[in-house]
Specification:
heterodimer, A: alpha+beta, Rossmann fold, OB fold (Dihydrolipoamide Acetyltransferase, E2P), 2 domains, 8 helices, 20 strands, 21% helix, globular, B: mainly alpha, MetI-like fold, two-stranded antiparallel ribbon, binds adenosine-5'-triphosphate, binds magnesium ion
Amino acid sequence: MPERSKSERPMIEIAHVTRSYGAFKALDDASLTIREGEFFSLLGPSGCGKTTLLRMIAGFDNPTSGSIAVDGQEMLGIPANRRPTNMVFQSYAIFPHLNVEQNVGYGLKRLRLDATEEKRRVEEALAQVSLTGLGKRGATELSGGQRQRVALARALVMRPKVLLLDEPLSALDKKLREQMQVELRRLQQAVGITFILVTHDQYEALAMSDRIAVMFGGKIAQVASPKEIYQRPVNRQVADFLGGMNFVKAEIVEENGASMTVDTLGFGRVKTDKPAAFVRNGKAATLGIRPERLRVLWDDAKDKHEVAGTVVDRHYFGEITHLIVDIPGLEKPLSVTETNNFGADDIPVGAPIRLAYDPDALVAMAD
Amino acid sequence: MTAAAEGAPALRPAQSRRTSLLQSESAQGFALISPTFLYALVLLVVPILVVIAHSFWTQNYLTIDRTFTLENYRIALTEPIYRDLLMRSLRISLLVSFFTVVLAYPIAFYISFHGGRHKGLWLFLITIPFWTSYLLRVMSWKVILGYNGVLNSGLLGLGIIDEPSTALLYNTSAVVITLTHAWAAFAILPIFVSLEKIDRTLIEAATDLGDGPLRRFMRVTLPLSVPGIVSAILIVMIPTVGDFVTPRLVGGKDGVMIANAIQAQFGKGANWPLGAALSVTTMAIVTMMAAATVLIIRSAARLAR
Ligand SMILES: Nc1ncnc2c1ncn2[C@@H]1O[C@H](COP(=O)(O)OP(=O)(O)OP(=O)(O)O)[C@@H](O)[C@H]1O
Ligand SMILES: [Mg+2]
């Protein structure tokens, strides 16, 4: 994804927002700033409060406390129909009694544009989502992917400051979903509108976003770029949610500002960055390394940093193989993913194996 | 691959078993509905055929002349008295269905959108008046609207009128009021059901696209509840045309409807063929009126977009 020069101007400022249902907090003191023109994702497991936050930005729900501002304007007390946001609903919410054109033009009617201008904007929106020529189709005569595009066009035609998308792709099959991810990203770059995408699919968030907020149990755990989130998760929960992670127990020997030196049983002494949110817990620390950052060393290949162990299990996934490697001294075996170019799928269970790693790939995180 | 190949032959007997099961299921289905079907045939279709047959015959004092004639239909369609009664019946039933739906819609709307967890309770409460006999309910309207009735005493007591009004009872409006009350629940239910079926995110979507409460009602809720309105109108309109108890009890001279004339022909008038011809004419006209109403409402809803 090419990096664009982006404005640093905040478009959405969420400050200490809490939403309680009785004693239960669906959202707990969430603070977040989303920039103008950004493709921003809210990522987290089911029930973590993503939809709750999105609906409060749209105006369908109000915070119990805290404030939400869009483009510098406080939103409290402004009803949903007067907010500069538009939403693509998870169920798409296509009006069944209207055809495609009428659905897309629904919000324009109120603006009392002249007929040709209205028609032009509807056509333009339909073209943006590649639905040109389908304007007269009935709402019930559309495929899932087409319905999704209509919902998108209907929101885009309003030229909102912020477009909110609640799991817009979750109802599509895998192939269509991947195609739509690319299209959605391209569309966002073309129109330059701030997009906020809710998803529980980590790959979707990683592939599409400029930045991601990872949420758990109503709290925002980390806000960062996809690469940062994946490579430097602040805690075990975030690390786990974004794919496999091997956790290694470590003991802090030396702390030096933003970096520290730790001792591990399997990987020896490692110097690593200290994450901003690192919580000290005596001398104990946890390091993590992604399975694909461990590399199988074939025959007598050598590396500066290697660990040796035994293959205890093997899972075949077509283009990659998942090896489970027992390393003496580690309490849990490491999981290693290796492409099948060199025959990782043929390594027998029980075989001795050596793995190379880059010490930079070992990251410290809070428990 | 091999697993699939092994699985294939094993599947075939299962499939044939399923089709034979289906066959026996549809056979069972027919067996299940046949008593109802026979019942409907005997009690609905046969009487209608008998009535239609009679409408082409002639009454000769106590016997019936079975030569084919259209004379009864000529009388039914051209005699001013029957034409007037028919027109009045149609007008009353249209008024009743209009008022019933207008009154029922807000109630159904309230229950569906603001009933919260108590929707069931609300619907239950609405059915309570129907625990008493229809006759009792009509009689109670007599008590309310009568010369010494509740309404007159109330108005007298408040000093709004000087002497009891006779304009309340024994006329067309008394029939309309009584029937509107009688059919309210039957109109509330279909409207409620169609409102319940509306996906609430559609209303949120309308809000999101800039509509306030009134606009989103006019553009989303109302058009999507048209099926409920249509069935409510039909449910009320069709039977009220042929009602004869209500006009008999509260209608007086001005409130007589076509069904009273039909009843008279089968009873005192002892002219079954004419009664039959009046019935068939009424049925045909009601059917046309119902169809016209459905078409008008549907096209109005379509135009409103
Ligand atoms: N009206 C409500 N009353 C009580 N609790 C609610 C209500 N709405 C939401 N919640 C709770 O708030 C929490 C967050 O809900 P939310 O819909 O935001 O989750 P989510 O992150 O969007 O999950 P999903 O991925 O399943 O859509 C959930 O635990 C849910 O049960
Ligand atoms: Mg959700």
